[in-house]
Amino acid sequence: MGREFELKFRTEASVLAEIQEKYGAFTPISMETTYYDTFDLKLAFHHWTLRRRMENHVSVCTFKRPHQDGGRGEWEVEAPNIMDGVMKLCQNGADWELMRIAASGLMETCGARFTRHAALIELEDCTVELALDRGCLMGGSREEPLCEVEVEFKDGSEEAAAAFAGQLAEAFGLTAEQRSKYSRALALAQK
C-alpha cells in the first residue's frame, strides 16, 4: 500500500501550457476512468473509491480508502477487468472486505476522460509528480470540463511537497480543489 498525499488545483488550459513550458519534459498519458460501487452504495458508505482506468491502453485498477492519519491509503494493480482487479488488490494488501462487498455485484457510477501530462520533479527535499490534466468528468448523461494541476508527493518531505504546491499555486494563480475527480463526477451523476 502506498499512502497518497496530493494537492489539486483548478485552472485554465492556458495556465497548463505555461506550467508545461516552465517545467519542461512531460509524458502524455491518455486516461479513461470508470468508477464503481455496489447497487446499494456500500463503497461510498465506507468512503472507499474503486476505479478502473485505462492508461495509454493499459488497464489499472485502484482502491482508495481513508487512512488512520487523515490521509488516504491507495493500492494499484494491472488487471483486465474490475473483478480481477478487486482480487489482485486484496492479494496485494487491500482490505478483504472489498472482495466480500464487490461479490454482491458492482455497477459503473461515473467517470472521467482526460489527457495527463506528467513529470517527475526532483526538489531539494522531496520528489513530486506534477500532473496537468485536461478533459472532462462524466456522470449520468452530463459532462463537465476538467482542467487541473496535481502535485503528488513521491519521496522525501511531505512539508516540502506542500510548500512547492503552494509556491506553484501562487506563481500561476491556481485555485485549490478539495474535491476528488470521483466526488465531482458522482455529483454530476446525481443531479
Describe the fold and architecture.
The chain has helices spanning 13-23, 42-45, 82-91, 97-102, 158-172, 181-189; strands at 2-4, 6-10, 27-37, 49-55, 58-66, 72-78, 107-122, 126-139, 142-156, 175-177. The chain is an alpha+beta fold and 191 residues long. The protein has a 10-stranded antiparallel beta sheet with strand order 1-6-5-4-3-7-8-9-2-10. The longest helix is centred in the C-terminal third of the chain and has 15 residues, at 158-172. The protein is globular.
Computed over alpha carbons, the radius of gyration is 17 Å
Global morphology = globular
Query: How confident overall, as mean pLDDT?
Result: 94
Instruction: Please give the alpha-carbon distance between the first and last residues.
Output: 34 Å
What order do the helices and strands follow? EEHEHEEEHHEEEHEH
Structural class determined from secondary elements: alpha+beta
Number of helices: 6
Helical proportion? 25-40%
Largest sheet: 10 strands, antiparallel
Strand content: over 45%
Low-confidence stretches: none
Strand order, main sheet: write it out: 1-6-5-4-3-7-8-9-2-10
> Could you give the count of β-strands?
10
